[in-house]
Amino acid sequence: MQHHKVHAKAMAAIPYTLYHGTFIHTPELDRLEIMNNALIGVNQKGEIDFVSSEYAGGSQEEAIMFFEQKTGESHSQFKYVDTSKDPLKFFLPGFIDTHIHASQYPNAGIGLESSLLDWLTDYTFPMEDQFTDTNSAKIELAKKVYSKVIDRTLRSGTTCASYFTTTDPHTSNIFADLCLKAGQRSFVGKVCMDHNETYPSYEESFEECQDSMSSMVKYISSINPHNETLVRPIVTPRFAPVCSRKLLKWLGSFASEHNLPIQTHIGENKNEIKLVADLFPECDNYASVYSDHDLLTNTTILAHAVHLTKAERSLIKKHSCSVSHCPTSNSFLTSGEAPVKQYLHEDKINVSLGTDVSGGFDSSILTIIRQAILVSHHLAMKSNDETDVKLTIPEAIFMATKAGAKAVGLEHQIGTFEKGKRWDAQLIDLNSPNSIIDIFDWQIKKDRKSMSDLLGKWIFSGDDRNCIKVWCNGRLVVDKTVDEWVFIKH
Predict the structure, then answer these.
(1) 360, 382, 408 — which closes off a domain?
(2) C-alpha 228 chain-centroid distance
(3) Where is the Amidohydrolase-related domain positioned along the sequence (predicted)?
(4) I need a labelling partner for 468 at 20 to 30 A (CA). Which of 126, 242, 404, 478 fits?
(5) Is the confidence at residue 448, as pLDDT, over 90?
(6) From CA 322, how far away is CA 312, in angstroms rounded?
């Protein structure tokens, strides 16, 4: 595909910005850190220059003086974002969605009567097949759907997502362009499958997959801004039942040769697991199918993982793979309840969160946080020791941010507010216009207990209307407010 200029938010210059307010993140799995009246400096590369949780100032001038004392530097112009006087606003790291099918977005909320394998044949493959033609109508369909899902996820606070597109390289490249245009950090996975017996019109040959993967990786590598990598390719064998052994082996080799991450599905549905056992009788289990074809690495994302055996969990841990927990989809398609608390604490597996649109009916990771906690409560109802399986709010936020960063191989760049990391963040306002959260006067305090309670209110009662601004790599990519940024001449 011929490269063309993308007029993108991702190309915009980044001014030095000081952020003053309350910052909430999870530097460790079970530790929620709330920094009140803190000051964070973000430089022109979008990197966090410093984090001061003991900042005592309250004015723009004091913030500038503090910055100069802290860094020994000075700038002629700053942006200053001050939310410190509003107790109902706080900054949170941007959400990271580690499993979402962009092409399936029109089907969100459809197919409740189906289980996984029927749902794929009746709804998913026909929808994705509409993106595999180069005529103008199909191109416009792809642009419309892809633009909408990128916009919707960004406006819900998702600053990074690992996407499945379709088998078509042309529209997959268009999707990469649209991610860059919107300014979202993205992993673009062109679906690979050469053995789709249930819907044979929607597959590609082994040779076609080789050609399309090579061209797509080359194209995506050419479109990023100078000295930045916002959009990346990711090797995407859809799942074992629709891939030949030859294709699986080649994809494992291709990922290794080009140092690319991998994403696929595992153990979502019991009938799917039986199908895999029938198709790959020489393999010990579902996970070993991928292991035997060199597809389990420390940058492999395994979606769902609802029904894992002890041997599979050990194999996943051995290869340092990550799981993408998709509780909304698992419930919608009656796939099961993944015991993620066990994966996290007993098996020491990195577990992130995925919307799995359109098996998942909501593209917001906030909904997935809520559902992950509730699914763990359902598991607790069946357990003799309820505390062993119930997820906490810090654990769920960790899964949506720092664990997601590790899953996509960016744990040193995003996921928390730490010096040297990128400013991928969202500003939450519990009193935003049209907010459905009611806060009472006596609940508004600056102490840790009150802030934790307000955080819980947001998780269980809030929605995307509370996410009023979103930054990716230091750039403002979503602004739902009407006020202007404050520029400071110094």
Answers:
(1) 408
(2) 19
(3) 92-477
(4) 404
(5) no
(6) 13
Q: Tokens 């990519």 correspond to what residue?
A: 477
Closest C-alpha to 476, from 225, 154, 102 = 154
Q: Is residue 177 part of a domain?
A: yes
Indicate whether 172 and 255 sit together in one domain: yes
* C-alpha–C-alpha distance, residues 371 and 359, integer Å: 14
Tell me, yes or no, whether 427 and 395 share the same domain.
Answer: no
At 481, list the tokens.
Answer: 């407010």
Dist CA 236 CA 166 (whole Å)? 10
Q: Does 239 lie in the same domain as 169?
A: yes
Helix (H, G, I), strand (E, B) or coil at 456: helix
Per-position DSSP letters for 97-154, written without gaps between them? EEEEEGGGGGGTT--TT--HHHHIIIIIHHHHHTTS--SHHHHHHHHHHHHHHHHHHH
pLDDT of residue 66: 86
Instruction: Please state the separation of Cα 174 from the chain's center in Å.
Output: 20
Residue 248 token pair? 């699986």
Q: Which residues are within 8 A (CB) of 59 and not within 5 positions of it... i.e. 6 or more apart?
A: none
Identify whether the C-beta of residue 391 lies closer than 8 Å to the C-beta of residue 376.
Answer: yes
Position 474: which residue type?
Answer: G
State the Cα–Cα distance between residues 263 and 235, nearest whole angstrom.
Answer: 6
pLDDT value at residue 196: 96
pLDDT digits (tens, 9 = 90+) for 69-120: 877 787 767 899 999 999 999 999 999 999 999 999 999 999 999 999 999 9
3-state SS string for 397-433: HHHHCHHHHHHCCCCCCCCCCCCCCECCEEEEECCCC
What's at 42, amino acid-wise? V
Considering the domain boundaries, does residue 369 fall inside one? yes
**Orientation angle between helical segments 136-155 and 169-182, nearest 10 degrees:** 40
Q: Find the domain containing 437 and state its range.
A: 9-93+416-479
**Which CATH number belongs to the domain containing residue 188 in this structure?**
3.20.20.140
> Does residue 212 have a cis peptide bond before it, meaning omega lies within 30 degrees of 0?
no
The predicted-structure confidence for 243-275, as pLDDT tens digits, reads as follows 999 999 999 999 999 999 999 999 999 999 999
Do 309 and 256 fall within a single domain?
A: yes
